[in-house]
Amino acid sequence: MKIIDLSLPIDEKAFEVHKVEIERVDHKAGVEKFNRVIMGKTFLGRIKYLLGQRILKKEDLPDEEFLSLEIVHAPVHIGTHLDYSFHYGSKSENRPSKTAEEIPLEWCYCDAVKLDLRHKKPTQTINSSDIEEALKKINYSLKPFDIVLLNTGADKFYGGPKYFSDYPGIDVSAIDYFLNKGIKIFGVDTMGIDRPYRFMLKEFLESKNPQLFYPAHFYGRKREFIHIERLANLEILPAFGFKVICFPVRIKQTGAAWARAVAIL
After folding, report:
1. Which pLDDT band, with edges at 50, 70 and 90, does 204 fall under?
2. Distance in angstroms (rounded) separating the CA atoms of residues 191 and 176
3. Where are the alpha helices (DSSP H) in 158-214?
4. CB within 10 Å: which end of the chain, N or C, has fewer?
5. What is the pLDDT of residues 45-85, one digit of tens each?
6. Please, which pLDDT band fits residue 240 given cuts at 50, 70 and 90?
C-alpha cells in the first residue's frame, strides 16, 4: 500500500486573499503563558501575577521547558477543504442547506478517478464535453460514489499571486454530468471552482449578468453537491485504481471544513 498526500497546508507565510495567522508559543514561552492563563482566572491571581509571583517556574520543569502551543486564526477555506451546500446559500434543492459537519463520511472514502485537464486555460471553463473526452482517453466509466479529481496543474502556483489568477473554472454542465452519474464529491487542484476573479468579476461588472458571477458555487442552491478545493500532487496519481480519503474536520455549522485528503494505492 502507498499513501499519497493530496493536501495543501495552512501556511501563514503563503500568499492568501484572506488573513491567516498562526500564533506560535514555543516551549520556553509556554511556561509564562501557563502562569498568565491559570493565575488570570481569578482577580487575586491576576494581582499576584502582576506583582511577579508565579505558580510554575521553568526550574520546576524538565529542560526548563513547558508544552508548545499553536493557535490558528484562518478561514475554513484556507488549505485543502471540502465545501458543502451551506457555503453556496441558505437553501439547496428547496431545503435548508447542510453544513460541513453533515457530510456523510461514507462518501469521503471511495474509489477515485483522476482526469487530466491541464490543457484548459485560465480564461476557460471545464464543461461536460471536456469530462467525457477525458474519460474516453483513459477508457473509464464513472460509477456512483466515485470521487472525481480534476488535474489542472494549478497547485504548482501555490504560495504566490498566480495561484489566485491562473486556473480554469468548472462549468455547470460538468457539475450536472457528475451528479447525473451518482457522483457525490469531486475535487480540484485550484483555489476555487469558479473562474479567477480577474475574469469573472470583470465580466459581471460590465454586463451585470448574475449568471456570470460565481455560477458554479451558486448552482449548489439548485442541486446539492460537495467539492474539494486546493488539492495537490494529482499528477503523481494513476488515472484510476486507487481510493481517496477526505474526511472533513468536524467544525460546528460551517459551509466548509479542512481535510487531510490522501490517495491510497
Report:
1. confident
2. 21
3. 172-180, 197-207
4. N
5. 999 999 999 999 999 999 999 999 999 999 999 999 999 99
6. very high
**Residue 104: C-alpha distances to residues 59, 99, 148 (Å):** 49, 11, 17
3-state class (DSSP) for residue 130: helix
**Three-state helix/strand/coil letters over 239-262:** CEEEEEECCECCCCCCCEEEECCE
Domains of the chain, by residue range, sit at 3-10+75-264, 21-73
pLDDT at residue 32, as a whole number: 93
C-alpha cell at 188: 480540484
| CATH numeric code, 3-10+75-264 | 3.50.30.50
DSSP 59-100: GGSGGG----EEEEE--TTSSSEEE-HHHH-SEETTEEPPPG
For 118, which DSSP code? T
**The model's pTM:** 0.91
Q: Residues 210-228: pLDDT tens digits?
A: 888 899 999 999 999 999 9
In the numeric block, which cell numbers belong to residue 145?
Answer: 460514489
Residue 262 zone, left/alpha/beta (φ > 0; ψ -120 to 50; rest): beta
Residue closest to 140 by CA, chosen among 183, 80, 83, 171? 183
Buried b (16+ CB within 10 A) or exposed e, 126-141: bbbebbeebbeeeebe
Q: Locate 35 and state its grid cell.
A: 502562569
